[in-house]
Write a structure and sequence with these properties.
The complex is a heterodimer of chains A (about 900) and B (about 425).
Chain A: H1 16-24, H2 29-44, H3 53-58, H4 65-78, H5 83-96, H6 102-114, H7 118-132, H8 137-153, H9 155-160, H10 163-170, H11 176-191, H12 202-212, H13 217-227, H14 235-245, H15 254-268, H16 274-290, H17 296-312, H18 332-345, H19 351-361, H20 367-383, H21 388-401, H22 404-420, H23 429-433, H24 442-454, H25 462-470, H26 478-494, H27 498-512, H28 518-533, H29 535-542, H30 558-565, H31 571-575, H32 603-617, H33 621-632, H34 644-651, E1 676-678, E2 686-695, E3 698-707, E4 717-720, E5 728-729, E6 743-751, E7 764-770, E8 777-782, H35 797-806, E9 812-821, H36 825-834, E10 838-845, E11 848-857, E12 861-869, E13 874-881, H37 888-900
Antiparallel strand pairs in A: 1-2, 2-3, 3-6, 4-7, 5-6, 7-8, 9-13, 10-11, 11-12, 12-13
Chain B: E1 7-12, E2 17-22, H1 29-42, E3 52-55, E4 58-65, E5 68-74, H2 80-98, H3 103-108, H4 110-120, E6 121-122, E7 125-126, H5 131-137, E8 172-185, E9 191-205, E10 211-216, H6 219-224, E11 238-241, H7 247-253, E12 256-258, E13 263-272, E14 280-289, E15 293-302, E16 309-318, E17 324-330, E18 334-338, E19 343-352, E20 356-364, E21 381-388, E22 397-403, E23 411-425
Parallel strand pairs in B: 8-23
Antiparallel strand pairs in B: 1-2, 1-5, 3-4, 4-5, 6-7, 8-9, 9-13, 10-12, 10-22, 11-13, 14-15, 15-20, 16-19, 16-21, 17-20, 18-19, 21-23
The chains are: A alpha+beta (about 900), B alpha+beta (about 425).
Chain lengths: ~900, ~425
């Protein structure tokens, strides 16, 4: 049953809009319908057809359902750009919501909820109220979701109109589909609210578990996901819940299975009987294995989740390692994940078979996969002491194939094996040395040099080998230089003969005089001094016994693991990061009319905007309170607490190799592109873009590093020079190794008043960034006053007046901005509110609008702001009054930048 | 963990938006296109990229089908499994509607596509994906006239997959038991993995609301009923049921009871990981004579009872990519060199049980190779076949009871077939 709609795409270019306009107003129904189709086709291919708004809306009143749907679709897309005209549609919407046909009633509410225009929203309430109580379940299920839509646009309205209660009533609806949608809506509303709205009691629990048996597969997922938050009172209740959920493991829908697994795992934490737990583990294994027969994309999600599950419950799949063996045609992203799980499940019992597999993979074509397979062998060696020898012999076999990248990867892992089992396998060093010439990657080179230095006394020609590297010392990457330096010192200490003595001189000279890498230089000086003052002490220091390294394949922090397990099947479990790290849903701040007239003095008033601001950042409750409190304290000498968000994000993603390709590192960068502060032309290919930003009451330096050079860059560090606000980094810069052609962004938490520059305030922020491979880069950035305005800068009207009066006139500074046009007071206030400049009052003076606002910078310094402008005409006058009038130039500059854009 | 998709995009191979449906107004098509073109630039081969990606605060998940990509965007911590599966279901629904789901058919039906996207997902939450029922109230132009214009009861019913009032003159059910054998043999000739994935595929032509009950020779069930399992009962590792099967009932007493959808569907799938003797065993000997030629001898043996016969047997043998001048002889069937796959393909139409066939092949190799020749991709030998009237697991349908209140008699037809799934032997 194929259509022929493609003809609607091929309208003539010339005079298209007027032509369509004419057709839309045709007296013939069919012609009008065709015209609307053409409009939708044009919309689909990205043409702007918003100018036809009125004409399309005129077609809305029709008996033809298809046409109606198309007009609705048009409205969803363009109502926002034509809010005033959208009101034309309201009548039809309201009428349709009372149509005898339930399809049309549902369609009307569904669509109205999608039109994010205030004026429409107001009219939505009555129809929604009716539809929530409609006789037809199809309409009720649509209305349930619509409440979540409305909450997203205007939370207060939902609460005021009692829709939350109506939604909660729907949980007891006799139709399972309605129940499922109500649960989804409530769960989402709860997520965005700090108040308890949707709390699952044991009563709702049992109702929902019953609905589970009857609703659609998608509905089952909603319910299971919502229920996984339920905390059972005791082991008994937990067992009862599990019993009712386990049948879901037999569902053909993988999402249902995964959500059921999540819920069972959650409840298992409470179950004390080991028999029950063992039994459940046995029950979950087969469904988890079956997930690997699903579509590759689903397999990928399943594998990322299984990775978490086996970390908590290693026994579940202990006997199933074979199902994770890679198939020839598996997509590479599936193979990579399987490999990771194989390492986790490898044991003394199965290691022989696993090694045989790894060896097989090491001869495949995909270079990344091959490397990972070689690394996997090394990780197994470190993990399983008794298998280490077998692992090493496999690595040696691989080295013999003489495939360049295999050899290099093998040497890197053998170095780690040496560090894990010192003085055990050194007999193989001779074989390694044969491949010395082929090494060209820094990490492999550095590893080999480390091995030579560490075992210099056992390698007869260690001095010759090291010497061969020395010639190119200045050209080597920093990583290799550092190893060469240390290895030469070790050699000298172990064999203090003439040859090594000369070598050490060359190296020390190179590393102190010829280099501008401070790390290398500092390390060289330390060695130099050690060697020249007390060679014996030097021996004690340099040749000291090193701690043995350990297996890193089970590495997620237990509390993070807990959180991730409670998020099974969701993105969080795919990324292995807590939701706060990537969820960026920003609620649009709603301005209601009352904001213009603060004199109303309703108690609700002062609450509402601050609530909106809170939810604008939509942070988890944990991190929002701390920075707020810090900002309010007048003596912020101690570093402000870093929100959990960053700690989790940066500190806990240990999987530095595996996920790089799958989860891009630029996880934090959002909003408009950052200004470039160090162009690639200056930075030898390294480009840095950066800007101070304020998130969640905390100041961050948002940085983007792009490596356009030919070499990998690592070891990034950052320093800030003294500046007006004493802005400095609160912690070390966390940037992973950057391969050529890749980029990484990061949010560096900042603290204030650390190193204050004396003198009059200015916006200069001097920054130095360095890495292991390049010289230190210096660049200048600007301090925008905007990021310093704190969330608690709102002043009561009376306080504002008092402060204004109490400050002497000399503290008032004003400036004209002839280039700035205020087109809409509302929009401007929104813009200012985002930067924590809070609206106090407004008055009209002749044709001018005068706005009063307040703001506050750290140490509690208030700014009282008066803006004067004529709407739509260029020219804005700004006067400020503050205890620190010397800040005024900074303020004006920031204001201009904000309003100009 | 509440969360849903912000928007859904259907993109062409170049990453241009063909159709998109905005559900939440916080991700634009421009953003999506920008992300996708970045992806296309970065990865020469889009398939090697994982299905989940992050860019500028938005998570994108996509799947590919023929020449289009289906992608969701989200700013929340949404259920990844559910959304990815939903994308696959969209493909199923569109295939039901347009037969071929590709760029062309999308353009030809964009009005219906928009209607479907509106019905299948609301505010980013998957709603309804039963193609058969959807087509009762969302129709393409040709069928527009007969539109009921009311949501069918099924959309919100507990039985969401079947409409009422279906009528057939002849009530029939076809049941195909299809088993795929997956096997992985390593270079030592050891079987390192073998399992069987089975499916009960049903086609129902039944009137009204029939109650069905299926009986299998399920060991757990037979033992529970106290019947001695006379060697024939089987133990299934994991069973997955179509949503029509009452799972709680199965959990209780292992009864498979359901009201089936109309038409074809997979009633259940199961997995069995007992070691089975490879049905077709292949031995290969490869000899390279310096750098001039390569000789291969292949022996294929059927390891099942004489009374069964494998059909459409196809054995793919990897060959070095620089091989030329094939010279091939077989004792049965025909073999051809497929240089585009670097493989030799040996086809045998009919391969009875307990037989052995041979193939000899010789290729010339160039005498010189480039210094930095990357080593050949080590592909396994792959085998395809079908064996009708036979199952590896020994599963049997003992009965299929159909009860409808009108009391008609329905005829169930059962067929069995076994075929090769991922059948890989890494022998070379």
């Amino acid at each position: 049953m194929s259509g022929h709609d493609s003809k609607y795409f091929s309208t003539t270019k010339k005079g298209e809009i007027p032509e369509l306009k004419e057709e839309l107003n045709s007296q013939y129904k069919d012609k009008r319908k065709d015209a609307v189709k053409k409009v939708i086709a044009a919309m689909t291919v990205g043409k702007d057809v918003s100018s036809l708004f009125t004409d399309v809306v005129n077609c809305m009143q029709t008996e033809n359902l298809e046409l109606k749907k198309l007009v609705y679709l048009y409205l969803i897309n363009y109502a926002k750009s034509q809010p005033d005209l959208a009101i034309l549609a309201v009548n039809t919407f309201v009428k349709d919501s009372q149509d005898p046909n339930p399809l049309i009633r549902a369609l009307a509410v569904r669509t109205m909820g999608c039109i994010r225009v205030d004026k429409i929203t107001e009219y939505l309430c009555d129809p929604l109220q009716r539809c929530l109580k409609d006789d037809d379940p199809y309409v009720r299920k649509t209305a349930a979701i619509c409440v979540a839509k409305l909450y997203d646009i205007n939370a207060e309205l939902v609460e005021d109109r009692g829709f939350l209660e109506a939604l909660k009533d729907l949980i007891s609806d006799n139709n399972p589909m309605v129940v499922a949608n109500a649960v989804a809506a409530l769960a989402e509303i709860q997520e965005n609210s700090s108040r308890p709205i949707f709390e699952i009691t044991s009563h709702t629990l049992s109702k929902l578990l019953t609905a589970l048996n009857e609703c659609t597969e998608w509905g089952q997922v909603f319910i299971l996901d919502a229920l996984s938050k339920y905390k059972a009172a005791d082991a008994r209740e937990a067992e009862n819940i599990v019993e009712r959920v386990t049948p879901r493991l037999q569902h053909a829908n993988c999402a249902v299975v995964l959500s059921a697994v999540k819920m069972i795992l959650q409840q298992m934490e409470l179950i004390t009987s080991t028999d029950v737990v063992r039994n459940l583990c046995k029950k979950m294994a087969p469904p988890l294995v079956t997930l690997l027969s699903a579509e590759p994309e689903i397999q990928y999600v399943a594998l990322r989740n299984i990775n978490l599950i086996v970390q908590r419950r290693p026994t579940i799949l202990a006997h199933e390692i074979k199902v994770f063996f890679c198939k020839y045609n598996d997509p590479i992203y599936v193979k990579m994940e399987k490999l990771e799980i194989m390492i986790k499940l490898a044991s003394d019992r199965n290691i022989d078979q696993v090694l045989l597999e790894f060896k097989e993979y090491a001869t495949e074509v995909d270079v990344d996969f091959v490397r990972k397979a070689v690394r996997a062998i090394g990780r197994c060696a470190i993990k399983l002491e008794r298998a280490a020898e077998r692992c090493i012999s496999v690595l040696l076999e691989l080295i013999k194939i003489k495939v360049n990248y295999v050899v290099q990867e093998a040497i890197i892992v053998i170095k780690d094996i040496f560090r894990r089992y010192p003085n055990t396998y050194e007999s193989i060093i001779a074989t390694l040395c044969e491949s010395l010439d082929t090494l060209d990657e820094p990490e492999a080179k550095a590893s080999m040099i480390w091995i030579i230095g560490e075992y210099a006394e056992r390698i007869d020609n260690a001095d010759e080998l090291l010497e061969s590297f020395l010639e190119s010392f200045p050209e080597e990457p920093a990583q290799v230089q550092l190893q060469l330096l240390t290895a030469t010192v070790k050699l000298f200490l172990k064999k203090p003969t003439e040859g090594p003595q000369q070598m050490i001189q060359v190296v020390l000279n190179n590393a102190t005089v010829e280099t501008d890498n401070p790390d290398l230089r500092d390390r060289a000086y330390i060695y130099w001094r050690l060697l020249s003052t007390d060679p014996e002490a030097a021996k004690d220091v340099v040749l000291a016994e090193k701690p043995v390294i350990s297996d890193d394949s089970n590495q997620l922090d237990p509390s993070l693991l807990d959180e991730l397990l409670s998020n099974i099947a969701t993105l969080s479990s795919v990324y292995h990061k807590p939701p706060e790290a990537f969820v960026t849903r920003v609620k649009t701040t709603q301005k209601t009319d009352e904001d213009d007239y603060p004199d109303g003095g309703e108690p609700g008033y002062s609450e509402s905007p601050s609530h909106a601001v809170d939810s604008a950042a939509s942070p988890p409750a944990t991190s929002s309170s701390a920075p707020h409190a810090a900002a309010r304290q007048p003596v912020p000498a101690t570093p402000a607490p870093v929100p959990d968000l960053l700690g989790d994000l940066i500190g806990l993603d240990n999987d530095n190799n595996g996920n790089g390709a799958i989860v891009p590192v630029d996880i934090l960068h959002e909003g408009p592109p950052l200004p470039v502060v160090l162009p690639a032309s200056t930075g030898q290919g390294l480009q840095i873009s950066a800007q101070l930003v304020r998130r969640d009451g905390q100041i961050f330096y948002s940085l983007l590093f792009e490596n356009n050079s030919q070499i990998p860059l690592d070891g990034f560090m950052i320093q800030f020079n003294k500046n007006t606000f004493g802005v400095a980094a609160a912690g070390p810069l966390q940037v992973p190794q950057l391969l050529p052609g890749t980029s990484a962004s990061t949010l560096l938490p900042m603290v204030l008043f650390q190193n204050i520059a004396p003198g009059p305030p200015n916006t200069l922020l001097q920054v130095a960034v360095k890495n292991n491979q390049q010289p230190v880069w210096y660049f200048n950035d600007k301090l925008s006053l905007l990021v310093f305005f704190s969330e608690d800068g709102r002043m009561e009207r009376s306080a504002f007046l008092e402060t204004w009066k109490s400050l002497p006139d000399s503290n008032e500074v004003s400036k004209d901005f002839p280039g700035i046009v205020v087109n809409s007071v509302e929009a401007t206030l929104d813009q200012l509110a985002v930067s924590n400049m809070f609206f106090i009052a407004k008055r009209k003076h002749a044709n001018q609008d005068v706005l009063y606002l307040s703001a506050k910078i750290p140490r509690g310094i208030p700014f009282l702001i008066e803006l004067t402008a004529v709407i739509g005409i260029p020219g804005l006058k700004c006067a400020i009054k503050s205890p620190s009038p010397e800040m005024a130039p900074l303020f004006f500059e920031a204001l201009e930048n904000l309003l100009k854009s | 963990m509440a969360g849903a998709a912000s928007a859904l995009f259907i993109l062409d191979v170049k990453g241009r938006c063909l159709i998109w449906r905005d559900y939440r107004g916080d991700v634009t098509s421009v953003q999506a296109e920008r992300y996708f073109s970045k992806l296309l630039e970065k990865e020469g081969d889009i398939e090697s990229h994982g299905p989940v990606g992050y860019d500028n605060g938005v998570t994108y998940m996509f799947i590919q089908h023929s020449n289009v990509f289906l992608m969701t965007a989200s700013r929340q911590n949404c259920n990844a499994a559910s959304l990815l599966l939903f994308l696959h279901r969209i493909v199923d629904v569109f295939k039901h509607y347009f037969e071929e789901f590709e760029e062309e058919s999308l353009r030809d039906n964009f009005v219906v596509v928009y209607e479907l996207l509106d019905e299948m997902m609301d505010f980013g939450y998957p709603q309804y994906t039963e193609a058969k029922i959807l087509s009762e109230f969302i129709k393409t132009d040709a069928y527009r006239m007969e539109v009921t214009q009311r949501p069918p009861m099924a959309v919100t019913n507990a039985v969401s997959w079947r409409s009422e009032g279906i009528n057939y003159k002849k009530n029939e059910v076809f049941l195909d038991v299809v088993e795929s054998v997956n096997i992985l043999v390593n270079s030592n000739g050891q079987i390192i993995r073998s399992d069987v994935v089975g499916a009960l595929k049903m086609r129902t032509y039944l009137s009204g609301m029939p109650e069905c009950k299926l009986g299998l020779n399920d060991k757990v069930l037979l033992e529970a009923q106290g019947r001695s399992s006379k060697g024939k009962a089987i133990d299934l590792d994991d069973i997955k049921f179509h949503q029509c099967v009452r799972l709680a009932r199965f959990e209780n007493d292992r009864t498979i009871s359901f009201i089936p959808p109309d038409g074809s569907f997979d009633l259940m799938t199961y997995r069995l990981s007992t070691q089975v003797k490879p049905l077709i065993w292949v031995e290969a000997q490869v000899e390279r004579h310096s750098r001039s030629r390569i000789e291969m001898v292949l022996k294929a043996r059927s390891q099942f009872k004489d009374r069964s016969t494998a059909t459409n047997v196809e054995i793919q043998l990897p060959v070095p990519s620089d091989a030329t001048n094939p010279n091939i002889r077989t004792s049965m069937g025909s073999a051809a060199y497929a240089p585009e796959n670097d493989a030799l393909v040996w086809k045998i139409k009919s391969f009875p049980g307990n037989k052995e066939y041979m193939l000899r092949a010789e290729f010339s190799l160039p005498s010189i190779t480039s210094e930095e020749a990357t080593h050949d991709r080590k592909a396994p030998i792959r085998v395809k076949f079908e064996i009708p009237y036979f199952t590896v697991s020994g599963i049997q349908v003992r009965y299929l009871k159909i009860i409808e209140k009108s009391g008609y008699q329905a005829l169930p037809w059962v067929r069995y077939i076994t075929m090769a799934g991922e059948y890989e032997l890494r022998l070379i």
